[in-house]
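Notebook entry, structure prediction.
Reason for the run: the old model in the group folder had no record of what sequence produced it. Starting over properly, with the input documented here first.
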Amino acid sequence: MNRFKQIVLVFALGLLLSGCNNTPDKDSSTFKDAFDGKFLVGAALNVEQIAGNEPKALDIAKTHFNSAVAENCMKMENIHPEEDIFFWDEADAFVEFAEKNNMHIVGHTLVWHSQAAPWIFVDENGDDVSREVLIERMKNHIQTIVGRYKGRVDGWDVVNEAIESDGSWRGNKWYQIIGPEYVELAFQFAQEADPETELYYNDYGVSGKTKCDGIYDLVKNLLEKGVKVDGIGLQGHLNFDIPLISEMETSIEKLSSLGVNLMVTELDMTIVPWPSDEVTAEVSLSYELSKEYDPYSEGLPDSVYQQVMDRYAGFFEMFLKHHEKISRVTFWGIHDGNSWRNNWPIEGRTDFPLLFDRSYQMKEGVEDILEMAENWETN
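New structure, fully documented this time:
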């Protein structure tokens, strides 16, 4: 081969290799980049991940998400297990990880009827404490935690799940002992502890009209009293067929009229059959494991998988449509393997609720959602 032909061959080969290297990897897009300018995209991080025991999950979090929420380590039973004892190690590690990776930090949750520490509602004899005592205990709990992370946590889920599906007050111990004022007091105490942090009300089942109306009335009443409420979290614990996308859209439109930020929180989608007539995220529910309710333990059929991805794409299309009303979308977990959906409300199931699989890989079809976001006109 003469010198000229050698030069031409090397040049052509160089162009070919260059073209290959510049071909975009279809999985190269990240959630935080694709949705940049629309809303933050986050995930809940669990204790094992924060402890460094699942580095691949942390890699996904660092690569794809610009917001993080504490899945369990800031709940009362974990962070404040006894009246005079606060356990800071896990929450400190969570905040430090999120800070190190320049993530928007959400604390979850200050006042909730579930996963409350057993001591909070009772005296030394096991009887309910007085209204005054519980208010003081709640104030100490909120202000100690919020005060510790003052200027570091960007927003707090102050009160979680205070409204029933029919729009009425949930008759939990906070309500029974203090009355409906407990919500107002909780927000007041949080604001006093850190006037700059954002304060949120968070609830599930918000797509239901009566529940949405109840939440609307609650927040409207707080705002009219001058209480600082910066946002409402619409928990996105979806089932395979309900709620309808249009139902959640209607709730977004109604609640946004209050003039507060909306966040889609705790987003996941259970694929396995639901064992109850009521669609809820009530953590106390528990049912026996059976094949009927665990049909995909050997894997998810392609036809079902496609329906799941189509449904996810439909929800994200709606979120993008309303991106000016939505400040954040947060998944409740990183990947299928560590989702609470595998063990609630039936322990030991194999569910597929998130967009990264058990091998820490982005699922096929997710890139279409990211492409839709990248190409979305924001004006």
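Summary: Strands lie at 40-45, 67-70, 104-112, 155-160, 198-203, 231-238, 261-269, 326-331.
The old model has been moved to the deprecated folder.
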